[in-house]
UniProtKB/TrEMBL annotation:
Gene Ontology CC, one term: plasma membrane
Entry protein name: MFS transporter
Region of interest called Disordered, as start-end residue ranges on this chain: 162-201
Molecular function via GO: transmembrane transporter activity
Segments crossing the lipid bilayer: 20-40, 108-128, 134-155, 206-223, 243-260, 272-293, 299-321, 333-355, 361-378
Pfam families reported in the protein's UniProt record: MFS_1
SUPFAM superfamilies, alphabetized: MFS general substrate transporter
Topology within the bilayer: Multi-pass membrane protein
Record's keyword annotation contains Transmembrane: yes
Keyword list, A-Z: Membrane, Transmembrane, Transmembrane helix
The organism's place on the tree of life at top rank: Bacteria
Matches recorded under InterPro entries: MFS, MFS_dom, MFS_trans_sf, MFS_Transporter
Amino acid sequence: MGMWIVHIPAIEHRTGVTHAVLGWLLLFLGGGAFAGMQLCGPLTDRFGSHRVVPAGGLLCSAALVLPGLAQGPWALAAALLVLGFGNGCLDVGMNTHAVHVESRYGRPVMSAFHAVFSVGGVLAALVGARTLSWGWSAPVTLSCIAGLGVAVTLVTTTGLLRPRPDGPAPDGGPANQSLAEDTNGHGDAEVAPGGKSGKRRTPSRIWALAVLALALMLCEGVANDWSALHLRDVLDAPAATAALAYGAFATAMTVGRFATDRVVARIGPVRLVRYGTALAAAGLVATALSPWIPLALAGWTVFGIGLSGCIPQFFSAAGHADAGASGANVSRVAGLGYLGVLAGPAVIGPLTQVIPLNLTFFLPVALCVLAACTAGVVRAR
């Protein structure tokens, strides 16, 4: 995905689309990802993440070639739809598999997986910059990376967890009887005689986790899309300095995620989300009100540190809520969360027509405060 982002300007030039048209075409990428997440959630529960992850990895890798080959806007739209679908399938499959790894590993590890995902974005920027400097075309570079992705998928498939014979689901651990006792009679799940689940309804707690994921990933989207513009347009920073805003945020997110698992093991996920979102809100308030560039950069850094470990806790809580429906639950949280990333520019952009850009940041501040007040939803049942 990082290699696609790096080559957006080249692909935009190749297909002859304008910035405005590209903005609409990106909706195909988001729509495909959302569809892939919703489809692969139930498939993961039925067939196991050890089968869905390789399928998603192969599809996502192969689809990376398509945007580079597109010659016009409609071809690019179809390519982005397929790439987004593959990414959505892989996203749900690997996060669900991470839940099972975490369950058997015996301590929190989810945030480390998300940190390595961030490292992949950094590597994509470095590799893309180098290949572009060599004059490689987008089709050539994307084909090479696609081949690498296919090879990595095939090699790592043998290392994925296989089903436990005593589990209720392809990937799941032992039957979660406490969940059945907790939800039976409350409208959240239907439990058939003998302990086997019949048709499941999504518990309200999963929807609450999904809404919080949407809120905090919207906050991430605001930092991704508006941090550099904030320094440039509000504080009159040079372009090179303005770029440091997103760099500070992204670096803080990556470092914070590597440290989160140890923190969660000590204080638990509830306090991590509560204190993390409160810290993020404080950092963004400092950024919004700062008249100085160094303080604004510090604020974006604190904002990234605060948010860094929160989203993985929502994925982990959703996946562990029901061993037999972990894929479906993760797909709901991931799906709404992904919509939050897409909503960031859509919400902030119109607000800038009414109030200054820095004041629009009080919307994500309010969302962080909301998450801090409702952090108890990640507590294990």
